[in-house]
């Protein structure tokens, strides 16, 4: 009986190996995410000692945060002043800005190289390599914390970690494994279920992290993270077998592989860059347009998410919230629980109503815009918690993109497509983290919620693109499609008949949406226009002016799309 139990347990472990790896990585990244709290608390404690070294701190203008402190009665138990809070946030965001700059070029290059040579190096080797990079970075972090090393050591740690590719490469490998080992009809559901499971694990980890920091500090926490990453490496090394994840391919794929084995790496680079090109004999006009729109929508979704997520920790630490590590842990736990339940329930409901992929993404982006606007205007803790009720429905674009793309492609193209999307995602994360950290540091003294309002504005673009995708997938016939027949549409088919909305109702919806977006964009323009004369930093003024130009471009795009539907 004991032998049978051990055998069953071992079989269960191997059959869910990817889930085990993802859970451990989720725990690791939850622990790693607290590094921002350590950096902020370090600068906050050193504010009094550094005031003499930075005499220009006294020149900072007082913002509405001090008024908020007195009016709302929040942060009254905090020993540090509003000025110290602003200085610590500025120093923290600047540190992360330069840290990202130091790692940007190696991360982009290694993402491309590892994606290109994945077949030669092996997925197992690439996955372990990225984890070793995390191990090196964490080891240096521990030395920095223990010996209080200078700031440039943070940049060295980021640079060395980037030489292994970073988290995007490991996500790319795991996404490939999930895609290749799952039937096409089950991919969307498996991606969502795994995402919900990881979110639930993250909820527990976030709660424990908050209490741990409150009562034990940061050092023991990071030793635990180091152990978790080392354990993950051992599991991958000993239990991941190359034959465990065989891709599902077709006759076309075998012919393609046979014909391209002789190709040079230069040709493979061309194939990666051209995988989304509409010039494919087998690909119909509908599929080509859908691929391009999906890719561009994903890009702007990433930018909007970065604008909201990158400075959100500083937003929580700032007035009028001034949250402690325990309060942030409570919030992250509540967020993860609501996210894991709400995203699955929402997807089940939308699937039950036979909503198409594009319709689901439209709903998701609408929820994202509303969520960003709500959070940006929050003044009390309960308002942030209320905002979590809509948050689970804001990320379907990111969850469905890989699944949607795989539906439009041949199996032999999926690796190239995922490499291309991962490279784009890496570039966006690298420069987005730098830009939005920098943007927050130069606007926090004037407007604490500017980046959140910008996120709402950026969310308009993927919403518009998915509205166009909805029309494309419904009204353009799928002519001359020579794609292989055994690859059937995935969980959320686009070919189901729908009865509503009718053309007139659809135009009315577009008109209402256009009016809504124009109103809020005009509000943002007025706010930015009033903000520019108060800014004395030339670079900051140029950055904010660039944002104003982006909003004008978005308004022009809305006008053209409105004219297209009503012409």
Automatic annotation (TrEMBL):
One of its GO terms (molecular function) is transmembrane transporter activity. It is found in: Membrane. InterPro entries: MFS_trans_sf. This is Proton-coupled folate transporter. Gene3D superfamilies: MFS general substrate transporter like domains. GO terms for cellular component: membrane. Keywords: Membrane, Transmembrane, Transmembrane helix. It is a multi-pass membrane protein. The chain crosses the membrane at residues 20-40, 96-118, 125-146, 152-179, 191-213, 219-237, 289-316, 328-346, 358-376, 382-405, 417-440, 452-473. It comes from Rotaria sordida.
